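Sample log: VOC family protein.
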Amino acid sequence: MDDDVVSVRYIVDDVQAAIDFYTGHLGFTLHSEHLPAFADVRRGSLRLLLSGPASSGARATPPDAATAGRNRIHLVVDDLDAEIEHHRDAGLSFRSDLVEGPGGRQILLADPAGNLVELFTPAG
C-alpha cells in the first residue's frame, strides 16, 4: 500500500448507499467492494473504508460505542499479535477483542481520551 494514503473507517448502515453517496456526490472513486459487508472509496490520499453491519470492522465496535462518533483511525500493522502483546505489556486499554473477517484481523485500542484506534492486518 502507498505510504501517502491515509485510511479512515466509517461504520455505515448500507454499504451500497454509502458508495453511491461518496462517489456520486463527493468525488470519490470506488476502489473495491465486498457487498454487502465492505467497500473502500478514494479521493486523493484519503482511503475511506465503508464497513456495513456484516463487516468484521463493524463487529469489532464495542456496544457502548455503536452510535455516531464511533469512527476511528485505521493503522495497518505487519504483525498484529506482536503489536497486541507490546501494547498490553505497556498497560494500554483495548476496547474490543481480536476480530477476524474476510478482509483481515483487527483490534481496537483506546487512546488516553478514549478515542478508538484500529490496529489491522490484512488477510493473506
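Observation: The chain has a mean pLDDT of 87.
Observation: The radius of gyration is 14 Å.
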